[in-house]
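Notes, Module 5: Reading structure tokens.

Key idea: the token line is not a picture. It is a compressed description, and you learn to read it the same way you learned to read a sequence, by spotting repeated patterns. We will look at two proteins. The first is printed below with its tokens.
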Amino acid sequence: MSMPSFPPNGADMTREEALTMIIASIAMEELALSHILNAEGEKLQYVLGTLPGTKPCASPQDVLAVNKSVTALLEAVTQNQMLLKSKLEKALEACPPPAPPVPPSPPPIPPCGPCCPLPCPERPEAREKSVLQLAGQREGMLWNQGCRLSWRRRVLRGEDIRWSRDAPTQIRLNPGKAYAVQYTLNVCPMHPSEETGTILLRQTPCGAFTEALPLRFSMERFSGRAQTLRYAAVLYPCVENGGEAELSLVLDAGSPLCVERAALDVTEL
């Protein structure tokens, strides 16, 4: 996530814009604290040897020293959280009251009878949001390193999401919309491995939507049997153009996977 950008003429901001920037800065500080806490957790896992791919390598004195360091950092984070809470409360107090409720729209015009001399106004039709539901092309298919996963269609509605049998690995999206993406994979490695695998939600061209975090999993935890991997993300548009953006699942792992079952849903928001 990039840092927030401030307008070049800060003095020309309205009060609402200034309050929005203050609340955005608080959110970025909260995000930074979450990354710090996550790093401290991984540090403890590394020392204890519970991090995938590592083994216990620390003495009891090392563990106590790391625990003391983590405790001190947590105390500092707690103090910072209290300051952020006070800052947010002050900013919310300065926010303008909510706008009054919008009066209800007039009832729809009833249809004209056959003897009505005046033309009836056209009624706007509610636009159907696009939905795509896919399943794995077949059970037990082999998924190799760097390859895209192939799909078969289950449900397809709307015009902003497209999928074709001629390109079963690619999902085409209208880059001006936001989408919710979720998938479930039942997989097992073809060869035993102690590495960490990654499943990428790749978009082409890159940057058409907000970047989606990859799904990482430990190959060692499979222990010769299938495991279920679940993932969900929301893609927000970053650019608007007349073309389409492509979405696909790509495997990055040292050992190929056997995909017993797979399902992927894309819904326009």
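Here is the second protein, with the sequence above and the tokens below, as before.
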Amino acid sequence: MSATATTPKSATSVRPEAPRRLSFAKVLLLVAGALVLLSVVSALVSAKDQNAFYSITSSGQVTAALSMAVPIGLAGLGGLWAERAGVVNIGLEGMMILGTFFGAWAGYQTSPWVGVLAGVLGGAVGGLVHAIATVTFGVDHIISGVAINILALGATSYLAKRWFGPLEEEGGSPRQSPKVDDIQDFTVPGLSDWLADVEKHHWFFVSDVAGLLGGLVTDISALTLVAIALVVGTFFVLWKTSFGLRLRSCGENPTAAESLGVNVYLYKYAAVVTSGALAGLGGVFLAMVRSHIYNEGQTGGRGFIGLAAMLFGNWRPGGLAMGAGLFGYTDALQLRNGGPTVHALLLLAAIGLALFAAWKVYRKAMVAAAVNAGVAAVLVVWYALTDTVPNELVSATPYLVTLLVMALAAQRLRMPKAIGRPYRKGQGK
């Protein structure tokens, strides 16, 4: 019998296709479709609740959403740096807490920008501790991250009582700092006023787009611009430089990277310390832009939501930014107008799930299509039979949206291959 006849068919089988990346044109089509969907939903709910109609696409809503998205995005960006180098960092919440505390403390003592630097350094110290524990001593990444979250909360609570407690005359207390000076905001002159005029006409689609764009050019904090630059810079550094290639190789195959002369420990340390610094900057944003004070518990789990945004973005900066924007938008919805506005979100979610179900039918995934269609039907009935959403669900909106989005996005995730795995120096020699 010839060798050709005995060759197993599996040897020539085709490898499974990797998830396709969306082209720029497809991204633009998706954005345009989302804008149309928002306009349609706004038109449908306007007769039922005028206030909810205008808050969905208003410039104020977008400005609030952007301010909510920035700390989530910075935390997620920190997670991206660490996990691309193979280190799981669920200590982002604790590093954000360190950023809020030290940023507000230094900002009150000196100036806002010194506070920004202090908050970044505070988060970086948390990242350094995590790197020492996981990279040098091989501690389980999850255990180390949980420990950092607990230690950061305990340390800042103690220091707040010691440093802010005696400052009652200046507005301090054992749980909060005195007020910190504002960081400069920017508004594009002319364009902001023109978009506001168009928004007031309430034209279908046109006014919606004007409201969305107006929120992006009105009262934008300087730290927001810094955060946008960091997202772009992260993409350039990690995907367009040799440094980024070496760092990502440490998260894919550190043994092979070391065999090629890469100092794996050094790159892991750099990644995790940078991760902490970015999370600390997210904490600074919460303390010095959102509220102008340090307040105990003000991070509110945003470090964990940042991790969800990173997963939603499939460990890439662009997708992460989209995820942070989505979570920030829903967070702003529930804070600005409460139940009636979140009630309008039910219809938006129902239409989105119905479209997703149609896509699953096209892909012949009938079970997934049926599940999504069923959930969409439940949301439509809920919307039709009620006028608002209970306050208990309103406050949980960002977390529910996080769970829903992660359930839908989980099928396309591709994490770094060596993430969370123990590595000891010398394995590649």
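Summary for the second protein:
- The CA atoms of residues 2 and 8 lie 13 Å apart.
- Residues 1-19 have pLDDT under 50 and may be disordered.
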